Amino acid sequence: MDEKEKKDEELEKENIISDIIFKGYGTKVINKFDKEWEFRTLSSEEYKKVWSIASIEDDDATNYMVLKKTMLQSALLSINHVEPTSDMKDKIFEKLPPKVIDILYQEYQKLEQIQMQATADVNIIKKISKNPYSKIKFKVMSYFKKLPTDKEFYNLNDHQLMWLYENISNEEIEEEKKNKMKMDYLAYYINPEMAQAVRDNEKNREMFTSENGDNITRVKEHDEQNPYNPNEVIHYGDTIVDDDFDKKIKMFVDKDEKFTVLDDDTHKGNATESKNDFLSRVIGAQNIINEENDKIMKNLENDAKQAGVKPEDLDVIMVNDDEEK
Asked: CA geometry: angle at 304 spanning 302 and 307, to 5°?
């Protein structure tokens, strides 16, 4: 199996499992005997019913044939895009030779295996859950408290789904703005000067910030007053923040070349962190920084004592390699 066939197989598997999640069953078209046979996966209750029907006879071979025939009959959705009635299914499978039933059942088992893998391999479910379209569906379902197989949700078309998603998202943004206004209002009673400085900085940032719908935030060169020190003005140069930078850079890296992704680190910078959050974090870590600085100064004083000089003279001390030897 070449690389393309593997990718096609993985894609088919992902689509089937996605259908099982959102439709309640997965489907597979089997092209055999000059016909298109469309089958679906069965639920746990349907499996129980099939097994109960297929265990009536004493003869194992007969029971196995009944099992295959009953399972295919229950799972059949259409033949050449025509959906048969229950009576038509009975007549079709009564006339089918055992060899045809065997071949159809062998192909149907591939669909069964994919269904079983969905519960055994959690990574497939994780991959589907990270899909943007899957997230949109989940958000809409969560908002209306509906399950994937709920008829009201299932009957929504893609345009209706996207319309609901956008309105829910906009409503959340508006609600967030309202909550922020409440917090700003309370902040004016606690510290009016700082609250006003933060609000001025936010307005200033909005003036200099632009987005073109490409997940890139562009901030033009500008000055801002430090909200924690009204006497200080901070100068910012032109800044670009690209949320998709990692994905884009991979496009220009050769396939054979290894692309190293750094592990997450609490000490590395966060390009999306706001200035106020950064300053708050720095001020919060001031005690730790002071302790580290005190340690450094004590070590310098000890080194100065050992060298017989003043601490302020340490930066001009030169070590002679010959004397050291």
From this structure: 110
